[in-house]
Amino acid sequence: MSTILYEDEIAPACHWSLRMKRGTSLRLIDKEGGANVGMLFYNPENLLERYNAPDTLKCQHTFKLTKGHCLYSDMGRIFCSIVEDTVGWHETVCGNTTKKIIESKWGEHNYQQYRNDWQQNGYNSFLVELAKYGLGKKDMAANLNLFSCVEVNQQGELCYRENNSNAGDYIELRFEMDTLVLLHTCPHPLSVSNQYPRKPVQYQIRQAEPVAENDFCKNSHPENQRGFKNNTLYHLGVDNGGCC
């Protein structure tokens, strides 16, 4: 079992950011069930390089994310790999809640009136974290929504599965390069909950095992092997421009 280096909890409707080092992993645990974690990735050495949802999905021929999948940058490199997952479905196409969406679903609960019980939205939460690194609206990318499932029905409509994850479910991301991670615990934009969902998430920073030649994530798709080669060149100081 990997060594836990640090652990804490992210409260409901909150946002945070941290720099994960190559060779460490981040385990996120849904404490109560039904959580949603919005997440974005950036290269801290070059903030122009960021998570690319279309490439992540198309090069692994998938609509959902789970164990064995890698999360790609727009330079063809792998930020991190999903090495453990008890949920089975995480989505990366629906984006964030906005202030307008929150108010239309659950009314306006501002900080001045409700203090720590105010209803934050994912879009503004990311903007707050982006600003800490000199970034703004133009730097926003399509984000992950961990623990959330969105399926397509016979009419081609996106359907959100409420309470997709159970209490104690977790996902673990092994970082293949130093990565700036932005995240929030605001509701999913398609949530149909009667009340504003408030779900805490526990996180653990762990020491990851070295990537072996028979690594499941590395070998789950041929494209992932090329992604790992791009990472190797990057860490050797040979920037190949993200060749795929």
Summarize the structure.
The protein has six helices and 13 strands.
Please explain how this structure is put together.
This protein is α+β, with helices and mostly antiparallel strands. The mean pLDDT is 95. The two termini are 33 Å apart. The chain has 6 helices and 13 strands. The protein has one domain. The chain has a 6-stranded antiparallel beta sheet with strand order 1-13-3-11-7-6.
Low-confidence stretches: none
Question: What is the average per-residue confidence, as pLDDT, rounded to a whole number?
Answer: 95
Helix count equals 6
General shape: globular
| SS content category | alpha+beta
Order of helices and strands: EEEEEHEEHHHEEEEEEHH
Strand-residue fraction?
25-35%
Q: Report the end-to-end length measured between terminal Cα atoms.
A: 33 Å
Q: Which strand order do you get reading across the main beta sheet?
A: 1-13-3-11-7-6
Q: How is the main sheet built?
A: 6 strands, antiparallel
Number of strands: 13
| Count of the domains | 1
